[in-house]
Amino acid sequence: MTAVSEHEVRTPDDEVVRALAAPDDTEIDRLDAWWRANNYLTIGQIYLGANPLLREPLRPEHIKPRLLGHWGTSPGLSFVYAHVSRLIRHTGQQAIYLAGPGHGGPALVAAGYLEGTYSDIYPKVSQDEAGMQRLFRQFSSPGGIPSHVSVTTPGSIHEGGELGYVLVHAFGAVMDNPDLLAIAVVGDGEAETGPLEGSWKGISFLNPAHDGAVLPILHLNGAKIAGPTVLGRKDPDEVRSLLSGHGYEIIEVEGEDLPGMHHRFAAALAEAWGKIRAIQHAARAGEWDGERPHWPLIILRSPKGWTGPAEVDGVKVAGTWRAHQVPLSGVRDNPEHLALLERWLKSYRPEELFDSTGAPMELVRSLAPEGDLRMSASPHANGGKLTRDLDIPDFRDYAVEVERPAAEHAESTRKLGELMRDIYRRNPDRFRLFCPDETNSNRLGAVFEASDRGFMERVTPEDVKISRDGRVMEVLSEHNCHGWLEGYTLTGRHGMFATYEAFAMVSASQTVQHGKWLQEARNLPWREKVPSLNVLLTSTAWRNDHNGFSHQGPGLIQVVLTQRGDVARVYLPPDANTLLSVADHCFRSRSYINLIVIDKQPQLQFLTMDEAIEHARIGAGIWEWAGTDDGTSDPDIVLACAGDVVTMETVAAAQILKERLPGLKVRVVNVVDLMTLVRPKDHPHGMSETLFTELFTDTVDVVFSFHGYPGAIHQLVHGRPDADRFRVRGFIEQGTTTTPFDMTVRNKASRYHLVMDAINNTKRLPRGATELKAWCESQLARHEAYVVEHLEDMPEVRDWTLGDWAGQG
Questions:
Q1: Domain match, 673 and 749 both
Q2: What is the pLDDT of residues 263-298, one digit of tens each?
Q3: Does residue 90 register a pLDDT over 90?
Q4: What DSSP assignment string belongs to 483-533?
Q5: CATH of the domain at 102
Q6: Where is the Xylulose 5-phosphate/Fructose 6-phosphate phosphoketolase C-terminal domain (predicted)?
Q7: What is d(CA 73, CA 52) in angstroms, rounded to the nearest whole number?
C-alpha cells in the first residue's frame, strides 16, 4: 500500500486527509463497534427468528426453519461501509454505496438499520428488541425482503441480484453529478462476468470538471459459491497490471488482524479521497492539463467469512468457499452447531453494542453521519427527490410537412436527433444520449451540434466531434450504455439509450432487472418516481439489408411485453411526426421502461403533426384514407399494422385491394402504442372494449402485420372478442443479406401475402379475388427472379408511394 505523502496531495484538503489517515483510539473504537454491531445484525438476519439479543441461551426453536443468505462477503462490505461513514463525518462528502456482491444484502440492510434510516422508513422495524426481531424474521422470508441488496434497501440504486453491473451504475450515477462520490465495491466473483470486465473503462469517459467520482474497491476474498475466484488466485502483480493498464492508480490493503486492518484501510481510504479531491480541484480551478486522470482504486484483500467460524466439523470454513452462504447449516438439529453459532454471535460482544431496550449504543451510533449524509438516506439513492423536469422545446417545431399520406420519404430518427440536440442545449446538466458508437449511423447526429462525444483518452486531429467536455456517450458496449443510463436516471437525470435493434438483446437482462426495480419501487411509498428508462431501437430487423441475419432480431419487444403493465411501454411510431410526439411523452414520463422502435432509413411519412399527436394520444386508430371502409357498417376485412415497414406494406396491400377488388370493404388500423391492444384490466393503456370494437369489430377477421414476432399480438389480444380471428404476420426468423422488400417476402409479410390473407379470410369473396391471388403469386415469383438478377427490388415496390397502383396489371 502506498502511504499518503504531502507532495502527492496538493489541495485545500491536506489537513483533512492527514486526519483521516491516522484515526485515534476513540475513532478505532467507534469503527470497530459499528462493524461488530453490523456483523451481529447480519448473522442474526440469516439465523435468528427469536431471542435476537441472546437474553437467554440459544435453543433450536430460536432458529429460522430455513436458513438463507450470504455471509462470506458481508463482513468485508460492512468493514468498507464503516470506514466510508467515518470519511463522510470528517469531510461532509456526499456519497452512495453500491454493493457489487449483491447477496451481501444483510450487511447493507443492517447498515441502514444502525443509521436509523431503516426504522424511519419502516417504523415497525424499530430500534429496540422487538424491532430487531422483526428485522431478523423478515430477511429472506415470505412476506419479507430478499437476501440481496434490492429496491427495498434504503440507500441502494443497485439491484444486486444479477452480478456484473456495479461499476456501470456507479459511473452513470456520477455523470453530471459533480459533488457525488460513488463507492463501488466489486466482488471478485462478480469481476469474472463479461459486463464487469468491460466496465473498468468508465474512467475513460469521466470528466472531473463536471462529473463526480467513482471509487472502485475490488474486494478479493478469494472464493465464490463453490470454488476459487480468478483474480483471487492470480499473482498480485498480474492483478495490479490489469487494473493499472485500465488507468487506475492502485492502493492495496491486505490482512485480517485487528485493529491493524482498521488503521491500514483508513489510511488507504484517506489517500484515495485525497487523490480524488486533488483531481477535481485541479479540473475545476483551471489547473488541469486535460490528460485523463489516474483515478484511485483500492484492492482490499480480506478472508471470506472474516470473523466467522474458522472450522466446522473439523473442516476449514473461514477463508474458503464454504463461508460463502450459510457456514453452519444444521443448527436446528445439531447441538454442536447451535453452540458454535451462539459462541460466534457472542464473539461480537452484543452487550457492548445494544442497550437494555435493544437500541444501538452511543458508541455505535456516533459513527454514522447526520441526516441526508447517511449513505442509507442519501437523496442520490432516491433520485426522484432530486429530479428536475426537462426543459423540452415544442416538438411540433420539428414536424415533417405531410401534404398527403405515403407520398414523401424522410429519415424519421433524424428529426428526433434534432429534438434531442435542443434538449441538450436547454439541459446541460441533466440529459444525455448513450449509444454504442452508432449515433450518426442511427441518424441522431444532430446532437453533435450541441455536444461532442465525451472522451478522456488521447484525442487526435483526425477525430470528429470528440472532446473532454463532450456529453454524448458512445462506447462500443451495450452493457455500459444501458448501465450508465440506469445509474443516471436512478439518481435523477434524464436520457435515452439508442442501439441497433438486434443488439439490444445483449443488454436485455439489464432491461428486465431495471423493470423489476421499477415495479417493486411502485410498492414503496418512500421511493420517489425517477425519470423513465427510454430505449430507442433502430437499424431494425426489416432494414438490415447489408448486415444480414445476425442483425435481424426484434426480440427486445417480446422481453418488455412480459413485464408488468405498470412499468412496460412499447411504441411503434410509423413516421417522424408520430415519433416526435411519442418521444416528447417518454422524456416527460416517470418510472417506466419506454421502448420505442423505428428504423433509421428513409421511410414514407403518413400523418400531419396534428394527426400524429391525436394518433399517439389514443394509441391506435383507423386510417380512413388508406382503406375503403365508409364507417356505415362493418368492413369485410380489417388490415391492422404496428411498425414502420409493415405499416407501409399494409397500406400498399390496402391500395392493391382498393384498385383490384373495389367491392371489398377494407379497414386499415394502425397501432402505435402496442399496449392499447391489452384489456384495460391487464394494462393501464389497454383500450376500452368499446374502442376495441370500433376499431376491430367483434366478428370481422383481422390480418395483423406486426414488426416483431407474431406470437406477441396473440398474447396481447388474448381475452378480446373472438381473438382467434386475428391472423398475424411478422418476423419469423427468416433473414439474410438481401433487399428490404425481400425481407418481407421471406417472412411472408409482404403486401402480396397480406392481400392473399385478406382474400382467404374475408367471409365475402368478391368477383376477381381468384385472379388477384394468382397475380400476387406471379408478383412474388417475379420478385424472386428480379432481385437475384438486378440486386435490388422491383421498381414498382422500391419506388412505391400511395396511388401508384392505378392502371397496373
A1: yes
A2: 999 999 999 999 999 999 999 999 988 899 999 999
A3: yes
A4: HHHHHHHHTT-EEEEEEETGGGGGGHHHHHHHHHHHHHHTT-TTSPP-B-E
A5: 3.40.50.970
A6: 600-801
A7: 22
